[in-house]
């Protein structure tokens, strides 16, 4: 029996193109990062990446990106649910507004957020008399990361919600299950993989975000200085090896966290298939 020819090119050609493409776009730049860092001796590398200022910047970047991604998972799910399950005037407009953080220059977003949440801004001046400062604090950084990260969760969850059959939900309700139990037992298991994917994407974007954060953070060392800004500062001071060393550690930390999230996602997919 003759093999049916595929419309797409052969396996060797596509595999070779994939490896070449990934090498040029991803692997070679990352290798250059490692090579440039090799200019430091081990004691110099360790002193650079463990200095109090660098450790504080890691903490600010990772903690704010994590909490922003958690908030986006919750509210991104709600937004995606409303856009899929309900009809209301201006629905297409709201759906289009979700993608604005993708199209808007990050510097513009940072300036706009700072002007709104600064102590003399529209929203900031309402909280300032209460002793709550938003801009120039980790809270302001988190809000900026929420703004740029919410499309990742919404656009990841939205197609899955659209593909879910409503018959199963209706059958669950007819059998006497409460709506919350139906959501928890029927709908939520299907949404866990895309929610984890959206979390990973928003978290990864938040760790490396610079433009929308640099204005609202205030850039105070040991308090609100993010790691990307510290890397830029090292580059402006022509300390290239130190800048790549800091970037390499941030890359390893973010890659490790993303690997854990992806492992949880694969485990969730296997559990969902076996159930």
Automatic annotation (TrEMBL):
<keyword id="KW-0812">Transmembrane</keyword>
<feature type="transmembrane region" description="Helical">
    <location>
        <begin position="12"/>
        <end position="35"/>
    </location>
</feature>
<feature type="transmembrane region" description="Helical">
    <location>
        <begin position="243"/>
        <end position="264"/>
    </location>
</feature>
<comment type="function">
    <text>Part of the ABC transporter complex CysAWTP (TC 3.A.1.6.1) involved in sulfate/thiosulfate import. Probably responsible for the translocation of the substrate across the membrane.</text>
</comment>
<feature type="transmembrane region" description="Helical">
    <location>
        <begin position="186"/>
        <end position="207"/>
    </location>
</feature>
<comment type="similarity">
    <text>Belongs to the binding-protein-dependent transport system permease family. CysTW subfamily.</text>
</comment>
<dbReference type="InterPro" id="IPR035906">
    <property type="entry name" value="MetI-like_sf"/>
</dbReference>
<dbReference type="GO" id="GO:0015419">
    <property type="term" value="F:ABC-type sulfate transporter activity"/>
</dbReference>
<keyword id="KW-0813">Transport</keyword>
<comment type="subunit">
    <text>The complex is composed of two ATP-binding proteins (CysA), two transmembrane proteins (CysT and CysW) and a solute-binding protein (CysP).</text>
</comment>
<dbReference type="GO" id="GO:0005886">
    <property type="term" value="C:plasma membrane"/>
</dbReference>
<keyword id="KW-0472">Membrane</keyword>
<protein>
    <recommendedName>
        <fullName>Sulfate transport system permease protein CysT</fullName>
    </recommendedName>
</protein>
<feature type="domain" description="ABC transmembrane type-1">
    <location>
        <begin position="58"/>
        <end position="261"/>
    </location>
</feature>
<keyword id="KW-0764">Sulfate transport</keyword>
<dbReference type="Pfam" id="PF00528">
    <property type="entry name" value="BPD_transp_1"/>
</dbReference>
<dbReference type="InterPro" id="IPR005667">
    <property type="entry name" value="Sulph_transpt2"/>
</dbReference>
<feature type="transmembrane region" description="Helical">
    <location>
        <begin position="55"/>
        <end position="84"/>
    </location>
</feature>
<feature type="transmembrane region" description="Helical">
    <location>
        <begin position="130"/>
        <end position="154"/>
    </location>
</feature>
<dbReference type="InterPro" id="IPR011865">
    <property type="entry name" value="CysT_permease"/>
</dbReference>
<feature type="transmembrane region" description="Helical">
    <location>
        <begin position="96"/>
        <end position="118"/>
    </location>
</feature>
<keyword id="KW-1133">Transmembrane helix</keyword>
<comment type="function">
    <text>Part of the ABC transporter complex (TC 3.A.1.6.1) involved in sulfate/thiosulfate import.</text>
</comment>
<dbReference type="InterPro" id="IPR000515">
    <property type="entry name" value="MetI-like"/>
</dbReference>
């Amino acid at each position: 029996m003759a093999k049916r020819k595929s419309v797409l090119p052969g396996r060797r050609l596509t595999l070779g193109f994939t490896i070449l493409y990934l090498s040029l776009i991803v692997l070679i730049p990352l290798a250059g990062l490692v090579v440039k860092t090799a200019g430091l001796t081990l004691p110099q590398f360790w002193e650079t990446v463990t200095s109090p200022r660098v450790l504080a910047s890691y903490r600010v970047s990772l903690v704010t990106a994590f909490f922003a991604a958690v908030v986006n998972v919750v509210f991104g799910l709600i937004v995606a649910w409303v856009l899929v399950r309900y009809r209301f005037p201006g629905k297409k407009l709201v759906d289009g507004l979700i993608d604005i953080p993708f199209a808007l220059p990050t510097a513009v977003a940072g300036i706009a957020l700072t002007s709104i949440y600064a102590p003399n801004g529209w929203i900031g001046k309402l909280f300032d008399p209460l002793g709550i400062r938003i801009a120039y604090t980790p809270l302001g950084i988190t809000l900026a990361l929420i703004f740029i990260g919410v499309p990742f969760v919404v656009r990841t969850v939205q197609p899955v919600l659209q593909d879910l059959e409503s018959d199963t939900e209706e059958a669950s309700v007819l059998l006497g299950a409460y709506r919350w139990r139906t959501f928890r037992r029927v709908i939520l298991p299907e949404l866990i993989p895309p929610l984890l994917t959206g979390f990973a994407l928003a978290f990864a974007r938040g760790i490396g975000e610079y433009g929308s954060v640099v204005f609202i953070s205030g850039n105070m060392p040991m308090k609100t200085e993010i790691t990307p800004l510290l890397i830029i500062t090292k580059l402006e001071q022509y300390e290239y090896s130190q800048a790549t060393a800091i970037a390499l550690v941030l890359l390893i930390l973010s890659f490790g966290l993303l690997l854990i999230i992806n492992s949880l996602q694969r485990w969730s997919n296997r559990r969902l298939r076996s159930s």
